[in-house]
């Protein structure tokens, strides 16, 4: 019997999440009983035969009450939220059950880019100048009022993975971007989420600089940085599709230390206490002075969750008591149970992932030269998540990728090269979507 065998954890996830299987496998390795709370149809009687708790993440208070009622009959040792949407439910239920987690107020701030910006700015941290407008506002009137300057970036407040994020350099581009984001936020699949923040569009000053992502965890108020990813592709707009993540970062140690220090201040400002943190920064270096210290570390996002999609497969960790590598999911489960993760370190090898972008909207048909790409030195795995006949959509409206490429080598430069070579080798076939012609009644 393992030390965890008598413990039960509740995994909260949307039914479409990529990461669910990785958390299941981690729970099994730890000898835990894992129970699901999902947003599947609540009318059917356990349609998947998995004993999952049917929840509504758009109603975090109601969903938390369901979890509390469930926990009266079955002891729950920890609640783990997978992805953005379940974070409020997990935080509310964890507080009621006195389980370690981020406070609901902090989770709520991380889900709303406007509220997050306000708290970070009040703490004296660098955030782009921002203002939000009601969804029903007239973008032409906004431009004529002089309330925005150019270049700027328009974005939804709750969507993730750069969905709906558009740069505008002129008034005409601003109007087009505003109307495009409004159309996205009025889609039925987004309206059904009932997010109050989806009633607004935020406008921020565009800031230049290279971008990095930080994967971290907060252990009872103390931040532990797990990895800093470089994003080698320039993210200058008009859309901001993320593709390459490579670790360890090639930034000098002084800049990396400054990034972690900034994240520590941000975590304190937002009130994050216990659980995963995924952060995005833009680094503006002072090129004239020649100093290694950055002029600005702009905070682009602080999320109370781990890295999304299948990207966590690019990370492996070591523990002094284990000869086997640990996954990020295993670390986060151990953290949720109150175990110390202080001795954990990222592996020595460089690693990375490419989120395969969707080059055009349409009907995905397939991919060629897949096996050839898998044979490229350093490539560990290529997972194609798109399925034949599936409709795929580009950013800024789209919310998924064609798949993921993973590489591991001795240096970050060689990892980046392997990822790019594999991507150039793959040949995807996407057919145009035929228009629907309605017959006369």
Helical stretch count?
A: 12
Share of helical residues: 25-40%
Q: Strand pairing plus helix content: what structural class? A: alpha+beta
Using only C-alpha atoms, the radius of gyration works out to 22 Å
Uncertain residue ranges? 41-49
CATH topology of one domain: Rossmann fold
Distance N to C terminus: 68 Å
What is the strand arrangement across the widest sheet?
3-2-1-4
- How many strand elements? 21
Q: Which architecture of one domain per CATH?
A: 3-Layer(aba) Sandwich
Q: In what range is the share of β-strand residues?
A: 25-35%
From the spread of the alpha carbons, the general shape counts as: globular
Largest sheet: 4 strands, parallel
Q: Give the integer mean of the pLDDT values.
A: 92
Give the class-level CATH name of one domain.
Alpha Beta
């Amino acid at each position: 019997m393992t030390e965890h065998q008598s413990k039960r954890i509740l995994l909260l996830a949307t039914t479409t999440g990529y990461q669910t299987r990785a958390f299941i496998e981690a729970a099994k390795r730890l000898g835990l009983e894992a129970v699901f709370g999902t947003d599947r149809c609540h009318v059917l009687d356990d349609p998947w035969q998995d004993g999952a708790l049917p929840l509504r993440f758009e109603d975090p208070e109601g969903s938390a009450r369901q979890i509390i009622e469930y926990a009266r009959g079955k002891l729950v040792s920890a609640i783990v939220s997978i992805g953005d949407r379940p974070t409020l439910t997990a935080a509310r239920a964890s507080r009621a059950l006195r389980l370690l987690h981020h406070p609901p107020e902090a989770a709520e701030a991380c889900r709303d880019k406007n509220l997050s910006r306000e708290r970070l700015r009040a703490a004296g941290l660098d955030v782009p100048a921002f203002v939000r407008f009601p969804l029903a506002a007239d973008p032409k009137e906004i431009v004529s009022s002089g309330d925005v300057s150019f270049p700027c970036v328009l974005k939804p407040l709750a969507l993730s993975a750069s969905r709906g994020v558009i740069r505008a350099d002129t008034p005409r581009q601003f109007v087009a971007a505003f109307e495009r984001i409004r159309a996205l936020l009025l889609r039925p699949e987004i309206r059904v989420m009932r997010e109050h923040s989806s009633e607004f569009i935020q406008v921020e000053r565009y800031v230049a600089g290279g971008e990095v992502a930080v994967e971290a965890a907060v252990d009872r108020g103390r931040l532990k940085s797990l990895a800093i990813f470089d994003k080698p592709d320039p993210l200058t707009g008009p859309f901001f599709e993320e593709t390459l993540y490579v670790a360890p970062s090639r930034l000098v140690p002084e800049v990396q230390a400054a990034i972690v220090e900034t994240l520590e201040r941000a975590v304190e400002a937002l009130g994050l206490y216990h659980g995963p943190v995924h952060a995005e920064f833009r680094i503006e270096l002072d090129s004239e002075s020649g100093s290694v210290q950055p002029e600005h570390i702009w905070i682009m996002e602080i999320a109370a969750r781990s890295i999304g999609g299948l990207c966590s497969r690019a990370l492996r960790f070591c523990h002094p008591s284990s000869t086997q590598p640990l996954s990020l999911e295993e670390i986060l489960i151990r953290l949720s149970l109150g175990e110390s993760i202080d001795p954990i370190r990222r592996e020595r090898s460089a690693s990375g992932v490419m989120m395969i972008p969707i080059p055009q909207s349409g009907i995905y048909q397939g991919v060629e030269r897949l096996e050839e790409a898998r044979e490229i030195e350093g490539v560990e795995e290529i997972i194609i998540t798109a399925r034949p006949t599936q409709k795929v959509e580009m950013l800024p409206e789209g919310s998924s990728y064609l798949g993921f490429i993973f590489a591991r080598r001795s240096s970050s430069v060689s990892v980046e090269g392997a990822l790019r070579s594999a991507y150039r080798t793959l040949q995807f076939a996407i057919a145009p979507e035929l228009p629907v012609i309605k017959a006369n009644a």
